[in-house]
């Protein structure tokens, strides 16, 4: 590097971390299990993707899913539906197809358009996916179990519930950070003493992530555009006297997931030794600024 472009200097203890290093052992485990199936003469699992919109992000996500499946030895079949009204029928066909092991639906399809039952059409479709095929953990049974801290599908505790994948990836990142998770404590208390702020309350990321971290003992502030809630001790409280700034300033972990290009988390809200995770497709934080804060660890989930 030339003298005109010297390497960036970060504050003591500050670091930028590639989340791919956290994902690597999990992907290796998948490849290993798929290889064992093939050695036994069993076909690898089949994941079916349902795409019924022209949203560029959804199309890109579908492409990445296919590439990841190929790399890991999983069969992948993308089914494109021209008319969104036909998605439910295609979904039911996939649910009933004995060849299909997993289903992923690329949203948005109808957005916030209401269904006859009062929920959005997209929510209705999420609940139509059989729990036996739901690889995203977004169907009603898995969501209900998550919010009640029920970790198994069956009474015998032989089959774990599937957790929402993006939220779970954040948990796995935090588990890899020694100062975030304390595995010496009992299950349900691994994050005891941690204060977390999540700036996102979507059903896909922010809401389940808040529940998962609270289930592990953290106090979690959930921030949406017009309200703040605190998950703590198995209870949910609406916070009238808190602001996004006050929540972030008391947090040891901050997760950003604001789907707007213009949003930036003010760096002066972040205290020393904070772990920052960005799950948005936009840069919600100024990386160079926050890495001038001593001890800050910054992670980005790449899709």
From TrEMBL:
Record-linked SUPFAM superfamilies: Aminoacid dehydrogenase-like, N-terminal domain, NAD(P)-binding Rossmann-fold domains
Question: For this UniProt entry, which segments traverse the membrane?
Answer: none
- Pfam families in alphabetical order: THF_DHG_CYH (PF00763), THF_DHG_CYH_C (PF02882)
Q: Where is the Tetrahydrofolate dehydrogenase/cyclohydrolase NAD(P)-binding domain?
A: 164-280
Superkingdom, taxonomy of origin: Eukaryota
InterPro entries the UniProt entry points to: Aminoacid_DH-like_N_sf, NAD(P)-bd_dom_sf, THF_DH/CycHdrlase_cat_dom, THF_DH/CycHdrlase_NAD-bd_dom
Q: Cite the Tetrahydrofolate dehydrogenase/cyclohydrolase catalytic domain residue spans from the record.
A: 18-114
Q: What is this protein called?
A: Methylenetetrahydrofolate dehydrogenase
The organism named in the record is: Cyclotella atomus
